[in-house]
């Protein structure tokens, strides 16, 4: 058999393999979307997230009162345990210095969403760069690549060995008290998760048929990694990003609760509101219940959607 004939056969095999992979990839996403539409868990999670996002966007414009104005301060006496509960003019009652709780909940939703999204984007971006570098080094092979991968993974293991909240508190304590600090601290906690997940997905994709076909055609490994392996490794990372939003909101609330959040207590944010309410829980428990329920329900929405996406993209669950 001539060299030209062998080359033609290899090229046809590569084209067939690439076509099959593309078709399978496209059908996988279509099937995943169909599974999501039939999943009650995904529908409930998406509905909760949609309501939360709408409230975060329009909340400051529809709030009936100023969230920082102490309009009814003369009606509240926290030293004597006298608080104003829900009434016609204040649907959620008043806080300890006479501010409208309903307005603060509406405006605080935007701050909570901002912290969750920005911190997740920080963790995703940095984790993507680190995990992509490590995965590419391991996939390309060679002594230098393996050493780079080993060094990066040992650093990631050190970060994963620390409890996430302890790591976030350490970063926030070093950087100082601010809303930006909370975003960065929570984002740093997410970095090792995204990095290890992307690296593992890239290593799994490294042995796929389309990679072998491309290598048989003489395509450079670097091009295979950038144009094929990395795009096909993103689906678990996207799912993890959805789940990480729920974790980010909870951890940001925890940092605010510990006093490491926004230094201005007048700015409404659910974690800060929860921290302020702990002193008056015996006499005004609803001051803590409202932000706590908001945090729990929002985190639940992201978790439900993320778990539904995980099941929809899992090949073991496709029937």
TrEMBL record:
Spell out the Pfam families in the cross-references. BPD_transp_1, OppC_N
Chief location: membrane
Q: Where is the ABC transmembrane type-1 domain?
A: 109-306
Entries under InterPro entries matching the protein: BP-dependent_transpt_permease, MetI-like, MetI-like_sf, OppC_N
Residue ranges annotated as transmembrane are 42-63, 113-140, 152-173, 179-198, 237-260, 288-308
Q: Which residues form a coiled coil?
A: none
Query: Where is the protein localized?
Result: Cell membrane
Per its UniProt entry, which superkingdom is the organism in?
Bacteria
Q: Give the record's keywords alphabetically.
A: Cell membrane, Membrane, Transmembrane, Transmembrane helix, Transport
Q: How does it sit in the membrane?
A: Multi-pass membrane protein
Q: Which PANTHER family match?
A: D,D-DIPEPTIDE TRANSPORT SYSTEM PERMEASE PROTEIN DDPC-RELATED, OLIGOPEPTIDE TRANSPORT SYSTEM PERMEASE PROTEIN APPC
Family stated for the protein in its record: Belongs to the binding-protein-dependent transport system permease family.
Name used for this protein in its record: ABC transporter permease subunit
What is the source species?
A: Streptomyces thermogriseus
Q: What is the lineage of its organism?
A: Bacteria, Bacillati, Actinomycetota, Actinomycetes, Kitasatosporales
């Amino acid at each position: 058999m001539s060299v030209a004939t062998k080359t033609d056969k290899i090229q046809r095999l590569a084209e067939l393999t690439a076509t099959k992979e593309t078709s399978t990839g496209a059908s996988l996403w279509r099937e995943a979307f169909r599974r999501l539409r039939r999943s009650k868990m995904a529908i409930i999670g998406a509905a909760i997230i949609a309501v939360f996002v709408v409230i975060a966007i329009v909340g400051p414009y529809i709030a009936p009162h100023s969230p920082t104005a102490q309009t009814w301060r003369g009606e509240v006496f926290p030293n004597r345990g006298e608080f104003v509960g829900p009434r016609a003019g204040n649907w959620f009652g008043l806080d300890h210095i006479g501010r409208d709780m309903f307005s603060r909940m509406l405006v605080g939703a935007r701050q909570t969403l901002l912290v969750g999204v920005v911190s997740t984007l920080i963790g995703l971006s940095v984790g993507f760069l680190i995990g992509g570098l490590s995965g590419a080094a391991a996939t390309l092979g060679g002594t230098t690549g393996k050493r780079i991968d080993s060094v990066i993974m040992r650093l990631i293991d050190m970060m994963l060995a620390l409890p996430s909240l302890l790591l976030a508190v350490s970063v926030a304590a070093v950087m100082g008290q601010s809303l930006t600090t909370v975003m960065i601290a929570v984002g740093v906690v997410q970095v090792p998760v995204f990095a290890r997940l992307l690296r593992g997905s890239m290593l799994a994709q490294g042995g796929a048929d389309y990679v072998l076909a491309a290598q048989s055609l003489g395509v450079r490994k670097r091009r295979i990694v950038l144009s094929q392996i990395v795009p096909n490794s993103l689906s678990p990372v996207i799912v993890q990003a959805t789940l990480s939003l729920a974790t980010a909101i909870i951890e940001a609330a925890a940092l605010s609760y510990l006093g490491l959040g926004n230094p201005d207590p007048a700015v409404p944010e659910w974690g800060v509101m929860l921290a302020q309410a702990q002193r008056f829980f015996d006499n005004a428990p609803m001051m803590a219940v409202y932000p706590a329920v908001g945090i729990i329900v929002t985190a639940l929405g992201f978790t439900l959607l993320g778990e539904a996406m995980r099941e929809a993209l899992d090949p073991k669950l496709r029937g």
